[in-house]
Specification:
Layout: H1 2-19, H2 24-34, H3 42-45, H4 50-67, E1 71-74, E2 80-85, E3 88-90, E4 93-97, E5 101-106, E6 115-116, E7 133-138, E8 142-147, E9 155-161
The structure holds copper (II) ion.
Length: about 160
C-alpha cells in the first residue's frame, strides 16, 4: 500500500517536473527566476539527452571533417606536373585522377606555394624556393581551386575524377 503511494507520488512529481520543463526537479528554486529569460529554450532543452548528443556529434564531426580532407601534402613523385613560372600556374587547370599526386615545380626566382582553397592547412606545398617541387595528393573526386599563399592573385584549379 505504501509502495503504491510512493509510486503515485513519483508519478505526480514527474508530471509536475514535466510541466515545468523537466529540469525543475533539481533546480526549481534557482530556475524559477531564470526560467523566464530562457523560456524559449526550455522546450528544446527539456529532452536533456538531446543536448549532450548534439554537442557530441558536433565534437565528433570536427575531427572527422579534418580526417576527411580530400587532399594532403605529398612527397610522392606526382603523376601530374604543374609548372610555376612568371607568377602563374601552367597549366592553370589541372586534370588528375583520385589517388594522384600533383607536383608543382617553381621556376621563378621567388618563392611560391600551391595551396588548396578551403583546405589551406592540410593541402599545401611548403613555400617552394626556386627550382623546388612540392605535391598534393587527392583522395576524392571534385574540383579544387588552388592559389599561392604568398601571391593570392595566382590561382588555378584541379579537376579530380575517379
Ligand atoms: Cu607565389
Amino acid at each position: 500500500m505504501s509502495r503504491t503511494r510512493i509510486l503515485s507520488a513519483i508519478i505526480v512529481a514527474m508530471f509536475a517536473a514535466a510541466a515545468c520543463g523537466g529540469t525543475a526537479a533539481t533546480s526549481a528554486p534557482t530556475a524559477a527566476p531564470q526560467s523566464q529569460a530562457p523560456a524559449s529554450e526550455a522546450p528544446a532543452s527539456a529532452p536533456a539527452a538531446s543536448a549532450p548528443a548534439a554537442s557530441e556529434s558536433a565534437a565528433a564531426s570536427a575531427p572527422a571533417s579534418a580526417a576527411a580532407a580530400p587532399c594532403a601534402a605529398s612527397d610522392t613523385a606526382g603523376a601530374v606536373s604543374v609548372k610555376i613560372a612568371n607568377f602563374a600556374f601552367d597549366p592553370a587547370t589541372v586534370k588528375a585522377k583520385v589517388g594522384d599526386t600533383i607536383t608543382w615545380t617553381n621556376s621563378d626566382s621567388t618563392g611560391h606555394t600551391a595551396t588548396i582553397k578551403g583546405n589551406e592547412a592540410a593541402c599545401t606545398t611548403a613555400i617552394l624556393a626556386s627550382g623546388k617541387s612540392g605535391g598534393i595528393s587527392f583522395s576524392a573526386a571534385g574540383t579544387y581551386d588552388f592559389f599561392c599563399k604568398i601571391h593570392p592573385q595566382m590561382t588555378g584549379k584541379t579537376e579530380v575524377t575517379s
